């Protein structure tokens, strides 16, 4: 059974974006060591356009062969003409109740009972499923998430979009890995413990 992994960038104070959802402020805090690690260990999580710039356009997926993103996460790339931001993955899903047809043949739309559809995807053979964002999508799928990988950037935002809007309910996690970088970034990996 495939795992659903919430792989997300966050500020030190737990925000994945500005109040309007924009996460561009993270990109000013990248260094070669951190980018190199992402390119080697998580190449499939780098957009097709950035993969070309990094010289890893043909890099095989390491952990994920499917991505699920919300409409708000998909929209900024779509406005820039990226209709298939992760076309190097066999499965790209956009959760939307407003799109009638996908803007690209490689993108599949999900609407209706999201949790049931994700359980169906998890039951298929393959690598893991990357939950790309955002907060509302993580909230809807909170009980389906098997693993959380947090890329913490050395910034304090003060306010913004949280990692989830699920409300207070303690969910136990097991720390399974930590990697630190000279630029101040930290990648923490957590398995969701059975309650």
UniProtKB/TrEMBL annotation:
InterPro entries: DHFR-like_dom_sf, RibDG_C, Riboflavin_Biosynth_HTPR
Name recorded for this polypeptide: Dihydrofolate reductase family protein
Coiled-coil blocks: none
Domain Bacterial bifunctional deaminase-reductase C-terminal: 2-184
One Pfam family named in its UniProt record: RibD_C
């Amino acid at each position: 059974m495939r795992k659903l992994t919430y792989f997300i960038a966050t500020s030190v104070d737990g925000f994945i974006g500005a109040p309007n959802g924009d996460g561009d402020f993270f990109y000013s805090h990248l260094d070669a060591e951190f980018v190199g690690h992402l390119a080697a260990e998580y190449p499939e999580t780098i957009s097709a356009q950035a993969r070309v710039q990094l010289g890893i356009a043909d890099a095989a997926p390491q952990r994920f062969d499917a991505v699920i993103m919300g409409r708000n996460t998909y929209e900024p790339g779509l406005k820039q003409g990226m209709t298939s931001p992760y076309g190097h993955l066999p499965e790209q899903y956009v959760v939307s109740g407003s799109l009638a047809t996908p803007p690209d043949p490689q993108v599949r739309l999900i609407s209706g009972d999201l949790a049931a559809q994700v359980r169906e995807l998890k039951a298929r053979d393959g690598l893991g499923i990357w939950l790309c964002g955002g907060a509302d999508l993580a909230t809807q799928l909170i009980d389906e998430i098997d693993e959380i990988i947090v890329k913490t950037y050395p910034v304090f935002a003060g306010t913004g979009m949280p990692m989830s809007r699920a409300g207070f309910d303690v969910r136990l996690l097991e720390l399974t890995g930590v990697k630190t970088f000279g630029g101040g970034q930290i990648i923490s990996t957590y398995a969701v413990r059975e309650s």
